[in-house]
Design a protein that fits this description.
The chain is of the alpha+beta class. Helix content is about 35%, strand content about 20%. It is built from 16 helices and 23 strands. The strands form 8 sheets. It has a 6-stranded mixed beta sheet with strand order 10-9-8-5-11-12, sandwiched between helices. Strand 6 and strand 7 form a beta hairpin. Helix 13 runs antiparallel to helix 14. About 45% of the residues are buried. This is Xaa-Pro aminopeptidase. Keywords: Aminopeptidase, Hydrolase, Manganese, Metal-binding, Metalloprotease, Protease. Its cofactor is Mn(2+).
């Protein structure tokens, strides 16, 4: 494991060196100095993109030292003489040579900050509980490939910039990885699915498994292989101050975009979404965090309606579930408002009932409330049931399952549904980030009061749980009836 003094040499200085001195030699060889203006990497760094990355940061808002602490936390959670193996995402193709925008595998990104495909990270823990070795295998520099596909960071940058203790060419995995794996008592990984798929990883690992008796595939099927996700969920669940600041920036900008959208008359779902998408990017976010829901009228009855291609009609409401992303961290917001800017009486009655429940549940998002996501859900159900009764709904039988078919919240972070598989029964603690999103969806059925039928209302905010109170990350998105209606005056 590298020392802190080495770790703080995170990004290259204005006159940066390429070629790190050997620690084994009594006197280091002379470094080759290169102007930062001439350096090219596979992702923004402070030296090449000072308008995006601050000094000391490896990715927006997150320093290299924080990435080291993350790897150290994983190493502490691993048994001695074990390894964690993480594969990057690969490029996905829409058709032929047309590819989708690349999105890094979240656990890989969380531990490395490295945003290129065809990469492999290994966290190796020996006999010490405080030291680890960070291996990073990446695509090598290749002038011809970079002419077509853009710059790569390369093997040297894997060490000098991303602080790998050992770095190598991903194409040499069949020769390098077996020794590391054979020396480990236990292997923690979720990478086997990637390797079995018909991705670029097949050529790296497939050849290894067929050419060597103790190949990677065979070793990963042994009894000493365990899933990595439960350990990563534990580590990622509690957000650092910098992570929360990233999510706050995403929430602040996204909230303002929502409020501006409520202020503006739109005639189609597509126009509304196109304007919001543009506004996310123009106001400093990386883009949208997930495929949005922009649902006018009865379209909102589909929880994940994403066609977003219908007209918006006078007298109806529009439900928008969307959010922006900053530095890989997302925000998740839902607001519902009248297309014409004015609530009808039934719309107002149902909306304000849901809003009261949402505010009461948000107030419980604090560590000293001894809440879990499931407890918050039960509080939500009780509040909605009582509110619906007062509005004339028959809430007997399965009524609430029909009218409120989803959970009140989920964890958020690098993923929209962060820490997948982590139990909702665990107590919420300071640093956990969640959504609170009660909603009511009234089908066109005689079972329900006529003046509420075909209404769909959901109100969602992103919340950071704190010791004594909630930190609402999305407060700029207005939600009071009086504030929404005032926007069009």
């Amino acid at each position: 494991m590298r020392g802190v003094s080495q770790l703080l040499r995170t990004t290259l200085r204005p006159a940066a060196y390429l070629g790190r001195p050997s620690r084994l030699l009594p006197q280091a060889p002379r470094r080759t100095l290169v102007s930062a203006a001439n350096l090219q990497f596979g992702q923004p760094l402070h030296e090449t993109h000072p308008h995006l990355i601050a000094p000391g940061e490896l990715t927006p808002g997150i320093t290299a030292l924080e990435y080291h602490h993350r790897r150290a936390n994983l190493a502490k959670a691993l048994p001695r003489n074990s390894i964690a193996v993480l594969a990057s995402s690969d490029i996905q193709y829409r058709s032929g040579a047309v590819f989708y925008e690349f999105h890094q595998e979240p656990n890989f990104y969380y531990l490395t900050g490295f945003k290129e495909p065809q990469s492999l990270a290994v966290i190796e823990k020996g006999n010490s509980d405080v030291e680890y070795t960070f291996h990073l295998y990446v695509r090598p520099k290749d002038a011809r490939a970079e002419q077509w596909d853009g710059a790569r960071s390369g093997i040297q940058a894997a060490q000098d910039v991303f602080n790998a203790d050992e770095a190598g060419d991903i194409n040499n995995i069949p020769a390098k990885l077996p020794d590391i794996i054979n020396g480990a008592k236990e292997i923690y990984t979720d990478a086997l699915g990637n390797i079995r798929s018909k991705s670029a990883f097949s050529k790296y690992f497939g050849g290894l498994s067929t050419s060597q008796p103790e190949g990677f595939q065979k070793l990963l099927q042994a009894s000493k292989v365990k899933p990595l996700r439960p350990l990563m969920n534990q580590i990622r669940l509690t957000k650092s101050e910098n992570e929360i600041l990233n999510m706050r920036k995403a929430g602040q900008v996204s909230g303002k975009v929502f409020t501006d959208a409520m202020r503006t008359p739109f005639t189609t779902e597509k126009d509304l979404w196109t304007t919001m998408d543009y506004s996310f990017k123009m106001n400093g976010l990386d883009g949208w965090a997930y495929i949005p829901v922009v649902a006018g009228g009865r379209n909102g009855l589909s929880i994940h309606y994403v066609r977003n291609d219908q007209p918006l009609k006078e007298g109806e409401m529009v439900l928008v579930d969307a959010g922006g992303e900053y530095g890989g961290y997302i925000t998740d917001i839902t607001r519902t408002w009248p297309v014409n800017g004015r609530f009808t009486d039934p719309q107002k009655d149902l909306y304000e009932m849901i809003l009261r429940v949402q505010r009461s549940v948000v107030s419980l998002c604090r560590e000293d409330a001894d809440m879990s996501l499931d407890k918050l859900h039960r509080v939500t159900e009780n509040g909605l049931r009582d509110g619906l009764k007062r509005l004339g709904f028959d809430v007997s039988g399965d009524a609430l399952d029909v009218l409120f078919p989803h959970h009140v919240g989920h964890y958020i972070g690098l993923d929209v549904h962060d820490a997948p598989g982590y139990p909702r029964t665990d107590r919420l603690r300071a640093g956990h980030c969640i959504t609170v999103e009660p909603g009511i969806y009234v089908p066109d059925d005689e079972r329900w009061p006529k003046h509420f039928r075909n209404m769909a209302i959901r109100i969602e905010d992103s919340i950071a749980v704190m010791e004594e109170g909630p930190y609402v990350l999305t407060t700029e998105a207005v939600k009071e009836v009086v504030d929404i209606e005032a926007l069009r005056r």
